[in-house]
């Protein structure tokens, strides 16, 4: 029953109702509180003046007064009764229940009469503190409002059901335990309040004070007051006016006020309204039951949310830790590669330092020996050894040429970490389910008529469906590895066309595309199958060649403007498959030694091919050839070239070897083995040589048959 307590408290004083009266708006007030909030109105607005003017408004008709009220929920806390020429504004206060009330314009006169009997100021107005409707009182004052005997009975039963000690009814804050009760005042007092409010002198000295428990019993045993008519105080209610919806006495029916109204027996209407209230309570009880079940559901949701939050946080931390672990493992792998490159560079430089140091020591010794020989004064002895010394000096000088004094290794690391796709993926890492209010883009459509392949490149084009209304922030293009492996991202951006270079020749790729926005990603498009060229068609690349290289014949023919060797690369790189191309010698003067083979993209361009560790080559003159890599010369083979000769280069990346041919005959053994990575066709030559490139050639038959036998 504790939830009912707020229904039993006055909106003005915040305490249990004392002698509650019913206002015409159906709200209740303590009779004393009703008197305290009365406001005096101007004479012109009194009921008498209104009746004299023929307005015909009933005593309790407050519809017009509702229109005059200036109170609103958004005001500044002040209210007045509009329409009065000189109506004073009255500060608005709040009761302990949080309801706004209007205090009296002046303190009530001191009196010892009960609130019901005390005179009411003339032309008084009362405003309901709950609905804020105003009402001008007639000559009867507060006696014109019916008493709510039912509410009194409910309060008595509620207080009797509480076993707690009786509290003082006059304490302003934190009521103390009552020590006495006045039977005449019907009020419980603590000692301080009794001395202050009920001194034992004057008329109050005759009042009988009893212990609180005895007062509760006497209050419980006191006979219930019979409800009497407000217009005829000596008459009890006997009938019920259906039109006015109020109990009436027989005099009300005889005097004409309710004579024309429909009336019914009080007992019958009492039973009818009880039945109606019971039925209404059944529906409200169902709603209250649903509300309790809903509260249980909400409390369970709180618990479930807490459990799910802990579980989700643990899952999120585990996922992020897994990403961090994977990144750390990849970091370790990349650092190992950097360390490997570091050690390799140091080894090459240290080997070159050692080689140059030995050669310099030999050269210095020869120089010192020659100087001592020059000092000899014996002509015949000098001439015996001078020719040999001159040849040795020239040979030593030649050994210091052709790149000997050029570093074999650059100081820059030929590694570049592309972390932009990973950073973009990290930035796109989000909870897509949190944005489910916005739809994801529609699935893109690949435009087959614009998709094609050329050599080892593939061009793909796509678009959004014609009826799509959800914009896409970008697209993600994925290709597999050309061997039926996993898909990987090759493009992320806003464009609707992309060319992918560096694919494997004679390979079948699967491509697919999806769109994304801030909400998430779409479904994948249909998979498109792409076939790269079986053989490579390419030309020389002017953009990466040395500036002394001269191009002609659509970049298929090259020569050089310098007497020094210069390097030129092909436009296409190879990393998989078997590839064969040929070069014909168009001009060959003064027996130069051009070099043919493959190289990395960052090979040195101003020295003979094969001088550094980025090239694998065969250099050849008119009599013989050598294989060279990292300035190491191997496998001298008889047989050279002349004008019109054809040099063939066979790069077999399936078997990881490189073989050379001259005039359709294999030149020496397999030149290099264990070659892997990305290689570009390469040539080095000087101004005495001109060659023409021939591509798109099949692998020689004898090599194919040999490979099939192996």
From TrEMBL:
PROSITE patterns, alphabetized: B302_SPRY, COS, FN3, ZF_BBOX, ZF_RING_1, ZF_RING_2
Coiled-coil boundaries: 288-344
EC number: 2.3.2.27
Reactions mediated catalytically: S-ubiquitinyl-[E2 ubiquitin-conjugating enzyme]-L-cysteine + [acceptor protein]-L-lysine = [E2 ubiquitin-conjugating enzyme]-L-cysteine + N(6)-ubiquitinyl-[acceptor protein]-L-lysine
Subcellular location per the Swiss-Prot or TrEMBL entry: Cell projection, Dendrite; Cytoplasm, Cytoskeleton; Cytoplasmic vesicle, Secretory vesicle, Synaptic vesicle
Pathway involvement of the protein, from the record: Protein modification; protein ubiquitination
Annotated ranges, domain B30.2/SPRY: 517-702
Domain RING-type: residue ranges: 10-50
Keywords (A to Z) from UniProt: Cell projection, Coiled coil, Cytoplasm, Cytoplasmic vesicle, Cytoskeleton, Metal-binding, Phosphoprotein, Repeat, Synapse, Transferase, Ubl conjugation, Ubl conjugation pathway, Zinc, Zinc-finger
Boundaries of every Fibronectin type-III domain copy: 440-535
Listed GO CC annotations: cytoskeleton; dendrite; synaptic vesicle
GO molecular function, one term: ubiquitin protein ligase activity
Record-annotated COS domain positions: 374-432
Sequence ranges assigned to domain B box-type in this UniProt record: 163-212, 224-266
Description of how the protein assembles with itself and partners: Interacts with SNAP25.
Protein name: E3 ubiquitin-protein ligase TRIM9
């Amino acid at each position: 029953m504790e939830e009912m307590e707020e229904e039993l408290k006055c909106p003005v004083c915040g305490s249990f109702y004392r002698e509650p009266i019913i206002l015409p708006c159906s709200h209740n007030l303590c009779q004393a509180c009703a008197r305290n909030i009365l406001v005096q109105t101007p004479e012109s607005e009194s009921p008498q003046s209104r009746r004299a003017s023929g307005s015909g408004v009933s005593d309790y008709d407050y519809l017009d007064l509702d229109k005059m009220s200036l109170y609103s929920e958004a005001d500044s806390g002040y209210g007045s009764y509009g329409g009065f020429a000189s109506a004073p504004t009255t500060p608005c206060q709040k009761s302990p229940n949080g309801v706004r009330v209007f205090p009296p314009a002046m303190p009530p006169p001191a009196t010892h009469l009960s609130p019901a009997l005390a005179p009411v100021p003339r032309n008084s107005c009362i405003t309901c503190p709950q609905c804020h409707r105003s009402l001008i009182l007639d000559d009867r004052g507060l006696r014109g409002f019916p008493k709510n005997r039912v509410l009194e009975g409910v309060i008595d039963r509620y207080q009797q059901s509480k076993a707690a000690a009786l509290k003082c009814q006059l304490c302003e804050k934190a009521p103390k335990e009552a020590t006495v009760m006045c039977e005449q005042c019907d009020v419980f007092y603590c000692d301080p309040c009794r001395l202050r409010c009920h001194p034992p002198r004057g008329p109050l000295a005759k009042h009988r004070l009893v212990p609180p428990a005895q007062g509760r019993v006497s209050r419980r045993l006191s006979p219930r007051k019979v409800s009497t008519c407000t217009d005829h105080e000596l008459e009890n209610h006997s009938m019920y006016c259906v039109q006015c919806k109020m109990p009436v006495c027989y005099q009300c029916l005889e005097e004409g006020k309710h004579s024309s109204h429909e009336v019914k027996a009080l007992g019958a209407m009492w039973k009818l309204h009880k039945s109606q209230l019971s039925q209404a309570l059944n529906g409200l009880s169902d709603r209250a039951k649903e509300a309790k079940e809903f509260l249980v559901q909400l409390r369970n949701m709180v618990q479930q949310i807490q459990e799910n939050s802990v579980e989700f946080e643990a899952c999120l931390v585990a996922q992020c830790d897994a990403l961090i672990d994977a990144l750390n493992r990849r970091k370790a792998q990349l650092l190992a590669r950097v360390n490997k490159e570091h050690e390799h560079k140091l080894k090459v430089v240290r080997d070159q330092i050692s080689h140059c140091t030995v050669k310099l020591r030999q050269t210095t010794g020869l120089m010192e020996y020659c100087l001592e020989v020059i000092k000899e004064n014996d002509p015949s002895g000098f001439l015996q050894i001078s020719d040999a010394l001159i040849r040795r000096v020239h040979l030593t000088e030649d050994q210091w040429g052709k790149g000997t004094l050029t570093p074999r290794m650059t100081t820059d690391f030929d590694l570049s970490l592309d972390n932009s796709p990973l950073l973009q993926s990290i930035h796109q890492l989000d909870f897509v389910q949190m944005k489910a209010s916005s739809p994801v883009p529609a699935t893109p459509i690949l435009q087959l008529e614009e998709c094609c392949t050329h050599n080892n490149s593939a061009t793909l084009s796509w678009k959004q469906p014609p009826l799509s209304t959800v914009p896409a922030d970008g697209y993600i293009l994925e290709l597999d590895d050309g061997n039926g492996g996993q898909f990987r991202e090759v493009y992320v951006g806003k464009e609707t066309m992309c060319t992918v270079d560096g694919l494997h020749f004679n390979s079948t790729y699967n491509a697919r595309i999806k769109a994304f926005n801030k909400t998430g990603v779409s479904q994948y498009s249909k998979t498109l199958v792409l076939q790269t060229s079986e053989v490579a068609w390419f030309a020389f690349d002017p953009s990466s060649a040395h500036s002394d290289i001269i191009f002609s014949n659509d970049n298929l023919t090259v020569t050089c403007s310098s007497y020094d060797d210069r390097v030129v690369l092909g436009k296409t790189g190879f990393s998989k498959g078997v590839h064969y191309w040929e070069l014909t010698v168009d001009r060959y003067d003064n027996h130069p030694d051009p070099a043919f083979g493959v190289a990395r993209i960052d090979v040195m361009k101003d020295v003979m091919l094969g001088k550094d560790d980025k090239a694998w080559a065969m250099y050849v003159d008119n009599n013989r050839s050598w294989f060279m890599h990292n300035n190491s010369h191997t496998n001298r083979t008889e047989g050279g070239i002349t004008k019109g000769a054809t040099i063939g280069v066979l790069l077999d990346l399936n078997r990881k070897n490189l073989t050379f041919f001259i005039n359709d005959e294999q030149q020496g053994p397999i030149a290099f083995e264990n070659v892997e990575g990305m290689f570009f066709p390469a040539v080095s030559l000087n101004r005495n040589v001109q060659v023409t490139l021939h591509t798109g050639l099949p692998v020689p038959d004898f090599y194919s048959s040999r490979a099939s036998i192996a």
